[in-house]
Design goal:
Its cofactor is heme. The protein contains 13 helices and twelve strands. With about 525 residues, it is of the alpha+beta class. Bound molecules: protoporphyrin IX containing FE. Protoporphyrin IX containing FE binds near residues 60, 204, 320, 346 and 353.
């Protein structure tokens, strides 16, 4: 019988624990006995407290909130483009959970590192969950998912000595011309957002919206911070914070929500008709490219407010699981190859990281009707039965009172394919054009910081790696390449004595040259 007092410590079997200070022993000096169930339960659970970290985006912070739809896309009725229910009525609210993250390093790494930031949103809609798994930057390093594990390996520490080494990262990047645009953002001040509240978010990949006629358009999603604005850190400012604080961004988010200063973002979309757009000098499905906002304006569709901190970090933040495959009716995939590669990867890793029944955990479960014929597996704790369903029937079709297929929500979107099965790059790679545009669009101080950060990282790299990178920067913009080359020449002229300062500077360059994934 457990005690009436609900503060009483118990085991998970409900046994009251009357001594939590002493293990059971033969005499006060031991030896200990092995039938000591409360001790065994406590220590063996402790032994299993950690689950595998996320292979990327291990360091994160989360918050609950709400999405409020505007009922329009820009000035047009949103139903023209998508039938997704969460967007249709002005003022309609959908609860959500967000996890922000850094990418490359482990669960307790500093939040000041030069690294993209993850921006993953789980909308608990009436039609089930929608996950929008994005980053702060609007583009990515690569466009083919086959390259992702190599990219991440090159950004992570050396497998021999576990040390960060920009030479490995730039070795990969200098053989990956399509990364030049992302490198240009990452080594500029945009590579270190000041915190999680004051940064933008973007879905990066191209998705589709589908209307009730089954007609699709291409769409890109962007989160724009509202009242809190955007703020990035210069390298030296990040260093100052890092000297005393490794978790400033988690703290900033938590404190803001605790004091009622709720961060807000507006969700905007860019829309393109669903075709190849031969008039553009890039492919709309290429995630290394921006869609120029002059041609494809940002159209507002709703607002997100984060207003509640998690009650338990592990349950809600660590075990949360987002994936690009998690779409609701009216939203669809485009043919973006990387999006399709990602879609396999997320739920695969989550079945390993959290377990086969990860979708039954409260943070991941939809807040709507769930009824499946999926059964059993590790840690299943309830059966997905519908009210009145015959519990003997765990298959479909059945005439004995099992689950039935849902009626169609609208006409299917049925793109037609007529092509050979190939291994081929997209045709319009244009790896350097937008990198040059971005370089020229920066203000002088942003360009100065970009060059300084690149020189700091590249000066520890071998000559051929430097040369290839300078070649890419030059193809983007002659001034860009020239300034990096001159900066490196200058750094070489200064270097070579092996002074303590230089050793420190080189370690510093290594620490800050770590880039990322996604
Ligand atoms: C996390 C794979 C590209 C954003 C992850 C995880 C994997 C992964 C395996 C760990 C998930 C988990 O343990 O729950 C990939 C692959 C990519 C890719 C294979 C490319 C082929 C991207 C891109 C973005 C992105 C382009 C941004 C748009 C994120 C975010 C998380 C994440 C935000 C953390 C989600 C969370 O907070 O739990 N990715 N990723 N990834 N990825 Fe990617």
């Amino acid at each position: 019988m457990s005690s009436d007092n609900n503060q009483t410590l118990t085991t998970r079997q409900g046994h009251p624990v009357s001594d939590n200070q002493n293990v059971r022993t033969v005499g006060s000096r031991g030896p200990t006995t092995l039938e000591n169930y409360p001790f065994i339960e406590k220590i063996t659970h402790f032994d299993r407290e950690r689950i595998p970290e996320r292979v990327v985006h291990a360091r994160g912070a989360g918050a609950h909130g709400v999405f409020e739809a505007y009922g329009k896309v820009g000035d047009e009725p949103i139903a023209k483009y998508t039938r997704a229910k969460l967007f249709q009525e002005a003022g309609k609210q959908t609860p959500l959970f967000v996890r922000f993250s850094t990418v490359v390093h482990g669960g307790h790494s500093p939040e000041t590192l030069r690294d993209p930031r993850g921006f993953a949103v789980k909308f608990y809609t009436e039609d089930g969950n929608w996950d929008l798994v994005g980053n702060n930057l609007k583009i990515f390093f690569i466009r083919d998912p086959l390259k992702f594990p190599d990219m991440v390996h090159s950004f992570k520490p050396d497998p021999v000595n576990n040390l960060n080494d920009p030479e490995r990262m730039f070795d990969f990047l200098s053989l990956t011309p399509e990364a030049t645009h992302m490198v240009t953002f990452l080594f500029s001040p945009w590579g270190i957002p000041a915190n999680y509240r004051q940064m933008q978010g973007s879905g990066v990949n191209t998705y589709k919206w589908v209307n009730s006629e089954g007609v699709g358009v291409l769409v890109k999603y962007h989160w724009e911070p509202l009242k809190q604005g955007i703020k990035n850190l210069l390298q030296k400012d990040a260093e100052k914070i890092q000297a005393t604080h490794t978790e400033h961004a988690t703290q900033d988010l938590y404190d803001a929500i605790e004091r009622g200063d709720y961060p807000e973002w507006e969700l905007c979309v860019q829309i393109m008709s669903d075709d190849e757009h031969p008039e553009l000098d890039f492919d709309p499905l290429d995630p290394t490219k921006l869609w120029p906002p002059e041609q494809f304006p940002f159209l507002k569709v709703g607002k997100m407010t984060l207003n509640r901190n998690p009650q338990n970090y592990f349950n809600e933040v660590e075990q949360s699981a987002f994936g690009t495959g998690v779409l609701v009716d009216g939203l669809d995939f485009s043919d973006d190859k990387m999006l399709q590669g990602r879609t396999l990867s997320y739920s695969d890793t989550q079945r390993y990281r959290v377990g086969a029944n990860y979708l039954q955990l409260p943070i991941n479960a939809p807040k709507t009707h769930v009824a499946t014929n999926q059964r059993d597996g590790q840690m299943e704790y309830k059966v997905d039965l519908a009210p009145g369903q015959n519990p003997h029937v765990n298959y479909e079709p059945s005439s004995l009172g099992g689950l039935k297929e849902a009626p169609k929500a609208g006409k299917d979107h049925e793109p037609h394919y007529d092509a050979s099965l190939v291994r081929q790059r997209i045709e319009r790679t244009n790896d350097f054009g937008q990198a040059g545009d971005t370089y020229r669009a920066f203000e002088d101080w942003e360009r100065d910081e970009l060059i300084e950060n690149l020189v700091g990282a590249l000066k520890v790299c071998k000559p051929d790696i430097r040369e290839r990178m300078i070649g890419y920067f030059t193809q983007a913009d002659a001034d860009y390449g020239r300034r990096v080359a001159e900066g490196l020449k200058h750094a070489d002229a200064q270097g070579g004595s092996g002074s303590a300062d230089e050793a420190q500077a080189s370690q510093y360059a290594k620490d800050n040259a770590r880039g990322t994934d996604g």
